[in-house]
């Protein structure tokens, strides 16, 4: 019962209560909505045309490199979080270490952007 | 007085008045009725925040439509109620009457789950914001040591709903919308996180309450102007409003990730978008402009004024600006915003080391 503070209770119940409110709205709408059925009612929307082809056509995912960089930098940011709350106490030395830590990432990013992996291809 | 204890005292009075039989059963040393009221209290708080957020959304949508009409030389909604102010209520009833269509090709579970993922974080974010106080009643629902981290976590979830909704529709437009949403997400998230990191450095705490208290003398926008610019652009991108409305670019993709959504499900997504606009303006006002801290007295009035200014700026950005391309956005995020935010991190940590954090 130690962790059952009023704040945490509200937070935990919010995760339940808000979806319940939303789903009750959707349920009310479902109850009052018409249930007609035409030949094309449940087809996908393609500007009024009959659906053609597969939706999973091969796509050039040109920002794949950005995704890799995103994962790396996100973890980087996560590792900096414990340092951030006590920068003054840890002092200048740790700050220089952190600068080196970020600097390695930035040098890598700069190198890759020089190599042309962050360019948007137009072919 | 805390909002929780305010509501709890009212409930306690009601319980005492009713002489509920549950009062005599004890659980962990407290009456069972008190335990039930404890949870009822939390639910009431959440519903209160929900109602206030929805009220703000209704006002915001009305102001948006009137403002947009004024700029585009139209009249806007003017039939229902004084100056068309009841138009949105009528729209809600219209949405309730619409047919509930899930395309037969769609991934039904993911399609249904996506609006919840878009909408719920808005309320979760609203819960942790310190809204200041009305006389002695403090309007803050949730306060613990890591509220800022929780807020960031809640704000990061909602774009995932866009991706899930777009992918699960099995529609080509929605697929493109979802892919663009993912691209936009990876474009702004790292700079936004790093500017949040420098806020934590300056305040020396993960709690939003401490961040507000640290801005008593100087708001954080002055030492962290670069971080403010980065965070503000990231907030515009996160709401996916122009110039960064890539996930639902109305003139290219039909409606982007929400193409297949109709009826109340679309209404939920729409409310989530406008609710996120309200949340984003409140967050910017709280983190960089001191929230309820004002020049004369600390009150909920100041945060209302500050966030209203930001709402107007967001609406103006929506109405006035054109759309950027995906590659332009990603280049902006990784080649300009990221170095700017790291520069801001260095500046704020040097301030923290040499001047001792907050002023």
Content-based structural category of chain B: mainly alpha
User: What share of the residues of chain A lie within helices?
Assistant: 55-70%
The largest sheet of chain B, given as strand count, sense and whether it forms a barrel, is:
2 strands, antiparallel
Strands in their spatial order, largest beta sheet of chain B = 1-2
What keyword list fits this structure?
heterodimer, A: 123 residues, mainly alpha, Methane Monooxygenase Hydroxylase, Chain G, domain 1, flat, B: 359 residues, 2 domains, two-stranded antiparallel sheet, 4 strands, 67% helix, 2% strand
Question: Can you give a write-up of this model?
Answer:
The complex is a heterodimer of chains A (123) and B (359). Chain A is mainly α and 123 residues long. Chain A has a single domain (6-115), classed as NADH:ubiquinone/plastoquinone oxidoreductase, chain 3 (Methane Monooxygenase Hydroxylase, Chain G, domain 1). Helix content of chain A is 63%, strand content 0%. Chain A contains 3 helices and no strands. Chain A has helices at residues 6-32, 64-84, 87-115. The model of chain A has no long low-confidence stretch (mean pLDDT 82). By secondary structure, chain B is mainly alpha-helical. Chain B has 2 domains: 1-97, no CATH class; 99-355, no CATH class. In chain B, strand 1 (26-27) and strand 2 (30-31) form a beta hairpin. In chain B, helix 2 packs across helix 10 (300-320) and helix 5 packs antiparallel against helix 6 (172-203). The two termini of chain B are 27 Å apart. Chains A and B meet through helix 1, helix 2 and helix 3 of A and helix 2, helix 3, helix 4, helix 6 and helix 9 of B.
